[in-house]
Structure formats: C-alpha cells, structure tokens
Amino acid sequence: MFDEDEPVKKGQIILGEDLYDLSVEDLSERIEALRDEIKRVEAAKADKRKGLDAAAAIFGKS
Questions:
Q1: pLDDT per residue over 4-25, tens digit each?
Q2: What range does the domain containing 57 cover?
Q3: Separation between Cα atoms, residue 19 and residue 24, nearest integer Å
Q4: Residue 16 lies in a domain
Q5: What is the pLDDT of residue 60?
Q6: Which pTM does this prediction carry?
Q7: In total, how many domains does the chain have?
C-alpha cells in the first residue's frame, strides 16, 4: 500500500511521527494543517452521508 522508497515531501504530515525536533512554530503549523484536513474529511463524510441517506430514501434501508 505504501512505497517505503518514496521520499517524504517537505511539510508532509506522517501520523505517529516523532515530534521532538519540531519547533513551536512548526507544531502550530502542523496543528492548523491537521485541523484543515479534519474539516476536509468531515465535509467528504457529510457528502457521502447525504448520498447514502438519499439512496435509503429511494430504495429503503437494507
């Protein structure tokens, strides 16, 4: 699934990554990026939920 030989892009967030060497500013930027990503994922989830709800209304729940 993941290519371990693929280089990590600058600014890319890796879950579980060691945070020791990051500055306070870097950590703040990381938090903001994660918040933005959470909003993006929640919006995608809401869109999918609307689609599922519409399908359930038409076809009924299984």
A1: 677 767 778 999 999 999 999 9
A2: 22-62
A3: 10
A4: no
A5: 82
A6: 0.71
A7: 1
